[in-house]
Structure formats: C-alpha cells, structure tokens
Amino acid sequence: MLFDEIATVTANQKLGPGLYLMTLKAPRCALEIQPGQFVHMMISTNPAHVLRRPFSVYAVDARTELIDVLYQVVGSGTFEMTKWQAGTRTAVVAPVGRGWSPPYNARRALLIGGGVGAAPLYMLCNQLLDKGADVDVVLGAATADCLVCLDRYFDLRKPGLRVLHTTDDGSAGAQGFCTELAEDALALAARTGKRYDYVAACGPEPMMRIATGLAKLYGIPCEVSLERRMACGIGACLSCVVDTVEGKKRACVDGPVFDIRELPW
User: Fold this and answer.
1) Nearest to 182 by CA among 149, 222, 145
2) Which of 215, 228, 240, 256 is 20 to 30 Å from the Cα of 38, by its Cα?
3) Handedness of CA 237, 74, 149, 63 (dihedral sign)
4) Average pLDDT of the chain?
C-alpha cells in the first residue's frame, strides 16, 4: 500500500563530497518500507521542481518512525535539499517499487555495492543476517571520503557478517574495483565448496553488468537495483522504462529491483 504523507526532516548532514544523509520522520511510510523500496519525494521548498524525485531508502526505524535517505548532489533539486534543516516539511510517497527477493532458503549471500549503491543494500544485509544467513559485503568507491556507508556496516557487529572494501585510488582498503573483490570471493567460495546462494548488486550500471556476469558464470541467483529517472512513481508516465527479455517494464513499479534473468545483459 502506498502512503502519501508530509514528512519532517529531523537531520540533514554532509557525509562526504557531494554526499548527504537525510533523516525523515514519516510515521505511516516507516511502518511499511521493505528492503530495496524507495520514497518519491517532492522538492517542496522550490516551486520550480514540479516533479517528485526517487530516493532509495538506506535504513528505517519503525519504532521511532524515522527513514534515512542517502543522496548525492547531482543537480539543482538535490542541491536544494542540502539547504533543508530540521523542521523542514516535504511530501513523500512510499513505499514505492519492488524490493529485494532473496531465495527463501539462502544461507550465504554476497552483496556488492558501488558508491551510493551501498545504501539500498543495507536493509537487505540486516534482513539476511537476522534470518541466520552468512553475508559477505563488498563495498567500493572512488576514494576513502566516498565510502560513507562503511562504518555503518561495520557497526552491525552481527554473527556471519564480513565486510570488505576497495577504492579506486587505494586510499582505503584494497586498490581497485569492488567487482574484483567480488570475483575473488566467488572463486574462493567455489573452490572451497562454500558457494553463495544469492548475489545482490547496486551501483553504477557498468559495475552491475560485471556483477551479473560473475553471478551467471557461477550459476548463482542474482538481483540488481536499477536507477532511472521517474516522474510519477506509479507506472503511469512510462518515463522509467527498462528493456527486459519480456519487453519493456517500468522501474518504478516492476522494479527497481530486477532478477538478472529478466535483463538482456
């Protein structure tokens, strides 16, 4: 069920270069959001922005009715959001879209997050750990300053969790791309007979294409979360179509999470 409510900003802090964490109090939406879904937010402080913007949900606390959204400044709308202070109110529609659907019996999972793609995987990681699965998380970013989700994953401190990280320039973790660490992890799992049951990836599309190729190579179920411009968020405007093996689908309602078997990659 979709809820359209007025959310209140409780915090809005800069975490890294062009990266911000906003916390919203949205009682009805916070109760319903599942891992992988998103909020469709109005930039209500500027009437020039007439269309809502989609933002992946980083974390939710149903008890306190709070939603965390990690966003990157990429245009005038997100720049406007950086000015919002505690008490700013804005209209949000949530929970929107189809989230992650790991196999029911998944006992070992590999999550691959590139850049801000680390955020939509956080709730999934928590969910899998709570169900008793072992989870390896591989996070990558351009520089150490951009690995803004890393500490939050470390702070989970739950049995079965292993967090690896890499940066393009080697300023934190291994030097290279997160897909290289993922490839090493998949190869090791195959050699030792401890295969993964599930792979999930979110980040730049070239990275996700490499991740899906690796999952296919090892015959592992895999899902990816696609980013598209969305005007309506309810599947009516067709601004977010995705090419699939079954024809065109809408990222806002048929996704944003897709099984890689649906994609012609």
Assistant:
1) 222
2) 215
3) negative
4) 95
